């Protein structure tokens, strides 16, 4: 396998899960809520190939969590 090929293949994958129009907070409380939701998403929902297809919590604490 050619290492450079892997990077170019990643660029060709569709990005259907990216929200190009994220909500804009109107108040500080809205901002806090969006940040909390983002942290929760990237900790418990987002699966990364760099972590052997595990979420951050699974990778850090084991798959039982």
Structural commentary:
By secondary structure, the chain is mainly alpha-helical. The protein has 3 helices and no strands. The longest helix is centred in the middle third of the chain and has 17 residues, at 28-44. It starts with a helix and ends with a helix.
Task: Please provide a brief summary of the model.
The protein is an all-alpha fold and 65 residues long.
Average pLDDT level: 76
Number of helices: 3
The overall strand count is 0
Cα-based radius of gyration, to the nearest Å: 16 Å
Largest β sheet strand count, sense and barrel closure: none
The rounded distance between the terminal residues' Cα atoms is: 34 Å
SS strand fraction: under 5%
Features:
65 residues, mainly alpha, 3 helices, 0% strand, elongated
How is this fold's topology laid out?
Elements (H helix, E strand, L loop, with lengths): L2 H10 L15 H17 L11 H6 L4
């Amino acid at each position: 396998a050619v290492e450079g090929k892997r990077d170019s293949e990643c660029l060709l994958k569709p990005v259907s899960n990216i929200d190009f129009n994220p909500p804009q907070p109107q108040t500080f409380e809205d901002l806090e809520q969006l940040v909390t939701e983002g942290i929760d998403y990237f900790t418990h929902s987002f699966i990364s190939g760099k972590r052997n297809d595990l979420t951050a919590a699974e990778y850090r604490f084991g798959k039982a969590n």
